Amino acid sequence: MSAPTNRTFWQDKIGVPGAIRESSIPSSLSEGEVLVKVHAWGLNPVDAYIQDAPLPLIKYPFIPGQDITGTIERAGSSQRFKIGDRVLGYAAGISFPEKPERGAFQEHVVLDEGLVAKIPDSLSFAEAAVFPLCLATAAHALFDPKFLALPLPGSGSPSTGKSVLIWGGASAVGSNAIQLARAAGFEVVTTCSPRNFEYVRSLGATKVFDYNSGTVIEDIVAELDGGEGKCAGIFQAAGITGEAIAPCCEVSRKSRQKLLVACANAVPEGTVVPESVEAKFVFDWQEGKAMYYDVTSKLFSQFLEEALRLGTYKVAPKPEVVSAKGLEGIQVGLDIVRKGVSAKKIVVLAE
Q1: Model pTM?
Q2: Are 29 and 109 in contact (CB under 8 A)?
Q3: Which residues of the chain have pLDDT under 50?
Q4: How far apart are CA 224 and CA 220, in angstroms?
């Protein structure tokens, strides 16, 4: 009897569309791994970026992708999951170049169970696909001790009386950062375009500024430094090229508080970071360990599952499902992502 087949989406090199091939489904799992049958993929800007530009950490060819939802097909030794559980998962395939089964863009994905969370029946697979990487990135910036070091959110976390600035609240990462910071007891000051003001307020932002305003820096500094002036730090959450880092650094420089700038992107060449400002890139790739693992695994098991079940954590941004389904829809979706989207996330259904 032939082994079950698994269709996979490979990125063979820079500058070419992905190629769909067949491979075998792994016959065994390592300790702590589960096998998920994919029902939907969420697409991120980085997924499109790595088709166009080389990253030194990536070894081509490889199976890209980060975000999946589906059902547990094999639970291995897991005590948290059983066959048939509906889950979302963060696949960190670029951290495991010798393990193509870890890449998201395939029909069956092997995941570290620490990066998997159950989803309630009230949540569709497409809705849940908006979360994994964006939530993990936001959580790492906000809660990791190397960055803003906020306390992890819990059930009914009390108000801290402090604020945090999230630059780019309408982005996918920013949408998660707003909700996580609020759940941890922080007031949220954020930026976005005026058309998204009500959207970010619906997620919990308390003060919203137009990032295109000529006085946005001064206005934000006045807000952060007003009253007792207790701001926990700044998170630059928007943009793939890092253009928002400079204004974040300027806010930090002009504030009377010492505010760390946690950056979702590397500081672009030519950007001058003032000597008085500390700006740190949150990317923590290392081969053989999933990015953002420590914080994300705690958040998935200790906060996210219950928050989704109770409906206190919103689906944000909303999914925009492409018309093409299956792996054939991945390239269609990546081409849409490449053009830029706002306050939504591109999702591809498996069938």
Answers
A1: 0.95
A2: no
A3: none
A4: 6
